[in-house]
Amino acid sequence: IKKKKHKSRSKKEDANLYFIILLAAVFVLVVLIFRSTPSEVANLPKPDFRPSCAKNEFRIINMTSCHEILYCDAIFHNVEKGSYFNKGKTKKMQYGVWEGRRVAVAHSITSKVINTKADFNEHVTNLFRLQSPFVTQLIGFCNVSRIFFTEYHKRGSLDTYLNSNEHITSDATERLRLAVSYLKTLNFLHNQTEGSLVVCDSNDLKGALQNYLVTSDRRVILNDMDDLPLVNRYGKLIQCKHQVNGDFMFKQSR
Ligand SMILES: *[C@@H]1O[C@H](CO)[C@@H](O)[C@H](O)[C@H]1NC(C)=O
Ligand SMILES: *[C@@H]1O[C@H](CO)[C@@H](O)[C@H](O)[C@H]1NC(C)=O
Ligand SMILES: *[C@@H]1O[C@H](CO)[C@@H](O)[C@H](O)[C@H]1NC(C)=O
């Protein structure tokens, strides 16, 4: 029995060693990738805008200055609404036009299984506090009718972009660049002062890719923020609201 115990322990130690070597390899790879970005960034098309606005402001397409976020009144009087273009688990998306510029309008879906109000509040709160080049811009929201507006990105989600006919998406350099951009966004989420934010609804590849949008200058930014639990570094486990099954399930939520 003693021998057996000893054997299994050394196997465990072996496994630990392999894991550490793997981590080190990943670390070296990430460092190499990040070091190689400045020259890649120089090759990128110029972005349409540079969001440098305060958190309660936005600036899209050809705007020359930042504008305060729109509230219910402005939304109902100044935004024309068009057709629907997407429907998810918690919201449906509609085209909108504000002062000649296309925007995306998100409506909460009323449902018995989903707490619409809590989802809406969480989404808008997250959008508001995370405003940065790593997430989609918030343009306006209206609490009473549970709608919010974000910047419209015509390339669509990362899933749509990777499966599109755009010639560039089959290019290995472009794919690596997208992966680095995705890592930068993850790093932003994982490196918040209060801890790490984890993107839920990532339990299968398609779902994971659909949480992100591709901007006109081909950056990967987070769009879906209604389930973004905070994980502190002292052993608190990730708890998602809607996760049911999929290939990338967290073990503890099975
Ligand atoms: C900005 O673009 C919109 C269409 O996207 C157009 O209607 C508007 O006139 C443009 N404004 C300026 C100042 O170029
Ligand atoms: C909308 O609801 C959010 C979350 O409940 C709240 O923090 C915010 O103050 C409300 N905003 C307005 C304009 O009513
Ligand atoms: C994490 O954030 C801190 C504080 O904002 C910053 O100093 C640090 O460089 C960031 N780390 C990474 C890996 O980006």
What does this structure look like?
With 254 residues, the chain is an alpha+beta fold. Helices cover 36% and strands 19% of the residues. It is built from 7 helices and 11 strands. The protein has helices at 2-35, 37-42, 72-78, 116-129, 158-162, 172-190, 205-210; strands at residues 57-58, 67-68, 79-87, 91-98, 101-108, 138-142, 147-151, 196-197, 212-214, 220-222, 230-231. The structure holds 2-acetamido-2-deoxy-beta-D-glucopyranose (NAG) (3 copies).
Small molecules bound: 2-acetamido-2-deoxy-beta-D-glucopyranose
Helix fraction, binned, reads 25-40%
Tell the overall outline: globular
Query: Helices and strands: which structural class?
Result: alpha+beta
Largest sheet: 5 strands, antiparallel
Count of strand segments: 11
Radius of gyration: 21 Å
Describe the strand arrangement of the main beta sheet, using strand numbers. Answer: 3-4-5-7-6
Determine the N-to-C terminus distance: 33 Å
Mean pLDDT, as a whole number?
80
Tell me the strand percentage band. Answer: 15-25%
Helices and strands, in order, run as HHEEHEEEHEEHHEHEEE
Topology:
Layout: H1 2-35, H2 37-42, E1 57-58, E2 67-68, H3 72-78, E3 79-87, E4 91-98, E5 101-108, H4 116-129, E6 138-142, E7 147-151, H5 158-162, H6 172-190, E8 196-197, H7 205-210, E9 212-214, E10 220-222, E11 230-231
Antiparallel strand pairs: 1-2, 3-4, 4-5, 5-7, 6-7, 8-11, 9-10
